[in-house]
């Protein structure tokens, strides 16, 4: 019912709607309406209440709770099933559990805080409460395990486009799974999968974005290599707007990929916003280190480099550093 | 304490051990000893109890309960952590949960019955109570996802060798994951993994063996293509002996693989007992069907065939049928 009232207020944002009208529309007493309005104010909603005129929504809080997301989401697959936690160990871990229990494709787990956020290879990922976007998407595409890397590229394309659209920041992609602003990391993507030998059961795409984090909150060793949207654009951004835009663009790219089996659209975006191509790179792959120049992405999103010996080779995975970015000077 | 008594009886199998001796050895009253002996008899242990002489173990039941396995296991990694269920939906599913909770490498889940046993691609697998071996091994090797197929070959080598050693049956390997006797399937292997793009988190090896199943118990459509050890050798076999032999040989092959990073030992066994090599094969891979002749296995255990056009190609995965076996006539 709180959701219904909120939805009515949002439809009339900035305009008054009378208690009586709300009462009739939603089918509860005016006292019940009043109680829910009080709760919404406690949740951080700025609402005018003027006698004889009614209620007027001035401003929503920066919240990712379900009411906000569910009312405004426009997708038809990605995020239609949303699960929200104020705090959780890791949205990827939770998504794995949900997937094992049969959660449908497109299910999104989102949290206001991660107490055990992980980056690649189990590395710790700082995920403070209320200032970032920590979410995971469950996918069940018909793919071979070796193709899962495509989903990382698709996600990088979606997140970068969404960040640029909503915030105007100059986000770029450090192949394969980091989003960069001003040479510092603002977002990491962690793709995990459950698979049989030749068939993916499900893929979990974890997305962690530093949105309104104050750089002073980062630990010292992180501050040198990480940034936030707030630091880049100079003010706070509503996380909800970014989430909805990511889900929307992700859905477009993902449905296009399923339909065409081509990564063309995502790879075009990845090339356009790449901070890797044209630069010197250092790649740690298994037990060797490769130095070279990043030349291009293949149609599947793999990195093509010219190595020190002058030979052109294709890199499918590995730890990639780009000269001048983060810790590779 | 029941385990201690059983262990003492087993050490003296066929010989009498007095209640007093047991009482002193284990540190409980003779009445307690008597009660546990009574329970062991109810569990199916055949035990003589003769006044003034004591207790004598004649015969163990065909059980996979922990006491039996834990007392006799000789491995140091595979199966050192054993988890037994009288009945469970699927040992692979349970192994996935245990792995997610941090179960150590080598953990084995074993059940007397599966109510939702699965073969590849989610196919149903008949797993009746008390007549088969349904178990899963949790592994955490440093592997790329594409290498997981090696573990299937290693498992096929271990199971085939163990079945031959213990039962004298003429088990053969239908590449990549079926064990065959008399052209019918006696065992299936289901390898699943959790992985990041370039690193395996863990691998679950599911092994399902029809041991003492009476072929009459198979559904009609299964009877034509499935067999059991009992049908092959003409009598029942203690499942425990097979389990212990599998774990032992699996451990030898696995530790050798980790040490040498070479599949030589497993592939040698896979070639020796192959029912695929030298025969006409039909391979369903993605959306195409390949006909050809199976020529060889590579050093990594992949199948080499000569296709209808006369070209030699390497098959990494797919649904393989061998002319003359099961449903490919």
Automatic annotation (TrEMBL), chains A, B:
PROSITE patterns: BPL_LPL_CATALYTIC. GO terms for biological process: protein lipoylation; regulation of DNA-templated transcription. It comes from the Bacteria. Residues 19-38 bind DNA. Keywords: ATP-binding, Biotin, DNA-binding, Ligase, Nucleotide-binding, Repressor, Transcription, Transcription regulation. Residues 58-258 form the BPL/LPL catalytic domain. Biotin binds at residues 90-92, 114, 118-120, 185. GO terms for cellular component: cytoplasm. One of its GO terms (molecular function) is DNA binding. Its EC number is 6.3.4.15. It is an enzyme of class 6 (ligase). It catalyses: biotin + L-lysyl-[protein] + ATP = N(6)-biotinyl-L-lysyl-[protein] + AMP + diphosphate + H(+). SUPFAM superfamilies: C-terminal domain of transcriptional repressors (SSF50037), Class II aaRS and biotin synthetases (SSF55681), Winged helix' DNA-binding domain (SSF46785). Acts both as a biotin--[acetyl-CoA-carboxylase] ligase and a repressor. Belongs to the biotin--protein ligase family. NCBIfam families: birA_ligase. This is Bifunctional ligase/repressor BirA. It comes from Geosporobacter subterraneus DSM 17957.
